[in-house]
Design a protein that fits this description.
Blueprint (H helix, E strand, L loop, with lengths): L1 E4 L14 H9 L3 E5 L10 H6 L3 E3 L3 H4 L3 E6 L3 H4 L8 E5 L7 H9 L2 E4 L15 H15 L8 E5 L3 H12 L3 E5 L7 H5 L4 E4 L5 H6 L17 E4 L20 E4 L2 E4 L9 H22 L6 H4 L2 E2 L2
Parallel strand pairs: 1-2, 1-4, 2-3, 4-5, 5-6, 7-8, 7-9, 9-10, 10-12
Antiparallel strand pairs: 6-13, 11-12
Helix pairs in contact: 6-7
C-alpha cells in the first residue's frame, strides 16, 4: 500500500505521527511511504532521516492525502479533508468525533473512513494508542508552572484513580504538594474537601448518562470555595464533564479564567513533551498501520474494526 505521513497543522503542534525508525519497518514490509516536507522537523526528525529510512518526501500536501492510508495525530482540518480524493481511503488519527461532531460532516464529504486511534482498545478495554501517564505528568507540571505558589505550598485535590491520575500524582508527590485523593464515597462532602484547594485535578472519565443530563460534580458556585489564584486542571477533557465550567483549550491558548479560577483543559497534554510522545505514538501506531496495510480494513483484527468511523 501507499502510505502518507502528514504534517501536523494545529497551532503549536510540532509532533509527527511516525518517526524514521518505524518508517524503515513499514518500507521493509513492502509498502511505499510518502512524508510531507518538514513533518518531523519539530521533533528533530529531518527530511534526510526519512529519505534514509526509505521514504519519499513530498512538498505538496495533496500528494500525501491521496494515498491509500493517511496517518496524522490530529484529525484533518477542513482544507485537509478536502484533499482526501480517493474513495474509501483510510485516515489514522485521533478523531475525537464525540467531542468534535463536525468532523463527521467533513468525513462524509470526503468519502473516506477513519480509524480513530483513541478508540483502539484491547478486550479488557485498555487503550492501545495512548500516552496516559505522560498526560498526567505533563498536565500537572504545567499546572504547577501556572500556580502562584511553589508546589510544596500547594494543596491539590485529585479526582480519579487511573493511569492519567497516576501520572499527575507522581509529579505532585515528587514535588512535595499536599494531595488529597477524593474517593467516590466522599463526593457528598465535596464542599468540605474542595475548600481552600489551590489545584483541582480532574482525571475522571465522566459517564455518558451524566454527560447527556449535564450533571456536574463541581458546579460553578463551588469555585468560590477555592483559594485565590486557584487552578482547575482538566486532564480528561470530556465535554460536558464533571466540572461545569470547563471547556477544551488548545496549545495556542491553553487556559482561560472563569469565576476568577484559571482553567487548563488542553486537548493533547503529551504534546508538551513532543519528542517523548512522538516516540511512543510512533511505535504504537505503526503496529496498527502494518496490520491494516497487510490485510486491508475488511480483514483487519476486530480491535481495529471497532475503531472504524464512517459518516
Amino acid at each position: 500500500m501507499k502510505i502518507g505521513i502528514a504534517k501536523e497543522t494545529v497551532p503549536g503542534e510540532v509532533r509527527v505521527v511516525i518517526l524514521p525508525a518505524e518508517v524503515e519497518k513499514i518500507v521493509k514490509a513492502g509498502h511505499q511511504v510518502f512524508v510531507e516536507k518538514n513533518a518531523g522537523r519539530g521533533v528533530y526528525a529531518f527530511d534526510e532521516d526519512y529519505i534514509k529510512a526509505g521514504a519519499e518526501v513530498m512538498e505538496d500536501p495533496a500528494e500525501i492525502y491521496n494515498k491509500d492510508i493517511v496517518a496524522k495525530l490530529k484529525a484533518p482540518s477542513p482544507p485537509e479533508f478536502q484533499l482526501l480524493k480517493i474513495k474509501d481511503n483510510i485516515v489514522l488519527s485521533m478523531f475525537h468525533h464525540q467531542q468534535q461532531p463536525w468532523n463527521i460532516d467533513m468525513l462524509k464529504a470526503a468519502n473516506s473512513v477513519v480509524v480513530a486511534l483513541e478508540m483502539l482498545r484491547n478486550e479488557a478495554g485498555e487503550r492501545l494508542v495512548n500516552c496516559n501517564r505522560m498526560t498526567g505528568q505533563q498536565g500537572m507540571l504545567y499546572a504547577f508552572q501556572q500556580s502562584p505558589k511553589v508546589p510544596e505550598e500547594c494543596s491539590v485535590l485529585m479526582l480519579g484513580y487511573g493511569e492519567v491520575a497516576t501520572g499527575a500524582l507522581q509529579v505532585a508527590f515528587a514535588l512535595g504538594a499536599n494531595v488529597k485523593i477524593l474517593r467516590r464515597s466522599e463526593y457528598a462532602n465535596l464542599e468540605h474537601f474542595i475548600r481552600d484547594k489551590d489545584i483541582v485535578v480532574n482525571a475522571i472519565k465522566w459517564p455518558n448518562e451524566k454527560r447527556e443530563k449535564k450533571e456536574y460534580l463541581i458546579t460553578r458556585p463551588l469555585l468560590g470555595l477555592l483559594s485565590r489564584g486557584a487552578i482547575i486542571l482538566d486532564l480528561a477533557v470530556d465535554q460536558p464533564g464533571p466540572i461545569e465550567t470547563t471547556r477544551p483549550t488548545s496549545l495556542a491558548e491553553p487556559f482561560f479564567i472563569e469565576e476568577g479560577v484559571k482553567h487548563i483543559c488542553v486537548y493533547g497534554y503529551p504534546s508538551l513533551s513532543p519528542v517523548s510522545s512522538s516516540r511512543r505514538y510512533s511505535r504504537q501506531i505503526t503496529a496498527v498501520l502494518l496490520e491494516i496495510a497487510a490485510k486491508g480494513l475488511p480483514q483487519a483484527p476486530e480491535y481495529i474494526k471497532r475503531a472504524v468511523v464512517k459518516a
